[in-house]
Design brief:
single chain, mainly alpha, five-stranded parallel sheet, 5 strands, DNA binding, deoxyribodipyrimidine photo-lyase activity
């Protein structure tokens, strides 16, 4: 069942949807909405124009009901109806971004109901091309998802559990289609794990009511976060907007409530005779990728080698990291030259590995401690916890899922929309070697080290002053580990527009970042072949340290902007947007 969350401090004991308040004009779009739309930031195929800052404030003060609150209200208002519904011919688990058997809360709960009543368990996956487009899912992530589904189907088949898969062209029809399938199979019980993005919470609120009206008991469980959003609040009863105190609260909560970190068991063999009753479901084919999300055969082979699919590969990679690299993680995690991180983010994003399992195993390796003993384990647990933090932020400030930043006033900043500069950044041709190496890595491997992500996001939003949302969108459309909450949080940090950001006046120097985190230039030489013959420290600044001839001969571009001048320009615009004096 949905776990209770602490009441929002902004409601003051009043249901937001019933509140009789003097409302501001929330219908007018933001003044810069047309520029955002022209740059492809707001996808008008699915969404209205960019919202006003007044509408963001309405979510903050409780005038507008948050999607999580709409979902919880639907859950509460259908409680008695759902209690009266009894199991029938089958139980259904709906897979979404939880493609695993191990430590899957909703799947285990569905199995237990099926087991207790000796009826078949059926699993379901629906591919929505419109959702993939609306949510900017990359072809690389789509490929990993489809490969993972094939492995998941095989693993489920060994337990005599069918996985039925289909494509639903119209995203709005998904709730009705889920109900239709449950009715076809005679299932009165539907289980799924909660997804916290706005579209998904609104869909699930609709589905809760639709199921109840159709005689189906829909149970949505909190699974993707180690600690459920809403359970951690400050002493003032508010949602944390700064990571450090939030992480202390997160750690203390897990120490006091160890059951939250205990992985759930995998399902056993299907308790009902699904092979007899639902034989046709075992023949379901993995859907094809939509045309706009397809990879070439060469790229598919490349990504298959880099990121093997499924939970077996994920658990193996987790085990190897904890045994071989985790102890040194705190010292080496920012190094760009070697592979010092876990590269588990694609598996978190696809749901073939739960954050709970990762933290639980790291805690065990660290002599059952979350915040002491080996600093390497503690540091890595803290990095995994950032994923929870950003989802907690998303739930409480839902407008960040609507093309807005945590600090909406920075929407008013005088952003640039220079297509030549954006193209140079995206292609890795800015004349700043560390930036170009990072961008060429994402274009080749659909992944990038977190330190590199911070460098390129700062460069785009501050050196080039290009609207940070263009970078956020580019990452989602190209990363294999594209997770909205984490990606938005990272771009909020780099552009100083988000929750717990670096202050706007702290602007990364690409040269300094290069010298600190790639001191020998190994990372640059790997990804920028034009500079492989450059020796010594000139690799970090070839046109300023005597390597002009080599760089020019090999076609490496000169810097497209001067960092010192860009820094002053950024400081001025951020200062004016923030209202600082």
């Amino acid at each position: 069942m949905v776990q209770k969350r602490k009441p929002s401090s902004s409601h003051n004991g009043t249901d937001a949807h019933d509140a009789k308040r003097e409302k501001p004009d929330l219908s007018s779009p933001h003044p810069n909405a047309k520029q955002a739309e022209d740059s492809g930031i707001v996808l008008r195929q699915f969404y209205p124009p960019e919202m006003s800052n007044a509408r963001c404030e309405a979510y903050n003060n409780g005038t507008l009901e948050r999607p999580i609150e709409s979902f919880e209200r639907a859950y509460a208002e259908t409680l008695e109806t759902r209690k009266s519904i009894k199991p029938n011919a089958a139980v259904v688990h709906w897979f979404k971004s939880d493609l695993r058997l191990h430590d899957n809360r909703a799947l285990r709960a569905a199995y237990e109901v099926a087991h207790d009543h000796s009826i078949p368990l059926i699993t379901l996956y629906i591919l929505s091309p419109q959702d993939l487009t609306a949510h900017l899912s990359s072809p690389a992530r789509m490929d990993l998802t489809l490969r993972t589904l094939a492995q998941l189907q095989k693993d489920l088949g060994e337990l005599d559990i069918p996985l039925y898969m289909e494509t639903q062209e119209n995203r709005k029809d998904i709730p009705g289609r889920v109900v239709e399938l449950c009715q076809t199979w005679g299932a009165h019980n539907l289980f799924a794990n909660v997804e916290y993005e706005v579209d998904e919470l609104r869909r699930e609120a609709k589905l809760v009511r639709l199921c109840a009206d159709s005689g189906i008991k829909f149970e949505a469980l909190h699974d993707s976060c180690v600690v459920t959003p809403g359970l951690l609040t400050s002493q003032q009863g508010k949602q944390y907007a700064v990571y450090s105190p939030w992480f202390r609260s997160w750690t203390a909560f897990l120490q006091e409530n160890p059951e939250y970190i205990e992985p759930s068991e995998e399902p056993g063999s299907n308790p009902g005779n699904a092979r007899k009753t639902f034989q046709d479901l075992f023949d379901s084919q993995v859907p094809a990728a939509p045309e706009n999300k397809r990879l070439s055969d060469e790229r598919r082979k490349h990504f298959r080698e880099l990121y093997p699919e499924g939970e077996h590969a994920a658990l193996s990679r987790l085990e190897a990291f904890l045994e071989e690299k985790a102890k040194a993680y705190d010292d080496e995690r920012n190094s760009l030259a070697g592979q010092t991180t876990s590269v588990l983010s694609p598996y978190f994003a696809s749901g073939s590995l739960s954050a709970r399992t990762a933290v639980s195993q790291a805690k065990r390796a660290n002599r059952n401690q979350l915040d002491r003993n080996e600093i390497g384990y503690v540091s890595w647990i803290s990095e995994v916890a950032w994923r929870d933090f950003y989802k907690h932020v998303l739930v409480h400030w839902p407008f960040i899922c609507m093309n807005k930043c945590f600090k909406p006033e920075f929407t008013n900043l005088e952003w640039e929309y220079d297509e030549d500069h954006f193209r140079a950044w995206s292609e890795g041709k800015t004349g700043y070697p560390i930036v170009d190496a990072a961008m060429r890595q994402i274009n080749s491997e659909a992944w990038m080290h977190n330190r590199a992500r911070m460098v390129v996001s700062s460069f785009l939003s501050k050196d080039l002053l290009i609207d940070w949302r263009r970078g956020e969108k580019y990452f989602m459309e190209n990363l294999i580990d594209g997770d909205f909450a984490s990606n938005h949080g990272g771009w909020g940090f780099g552009s100083s527009t988000g929750v717990d950001p670096q202050p706007y006046f702290r602007i990364f120097s690409p040269l300094r970042q290069s010298e600190r985190f790639d001191p020998e230039g190994e990372y640059i030489r790997r990804w920028v072949p034009e500079l492989r013959d450059v020796e010594g420290s000139a690799i970090h600044e070839p046109y300023g340290r005597g390597a002009d001839k080599i760089a020019s001969k090999n076609g490496y571009p000169r810097p497209i902007v001067d960092h010192k001048e860009s820094r002053e320009r950024a400081l001025d615009r951020y200062k004016r947007a923030s209202g600082a004096k």
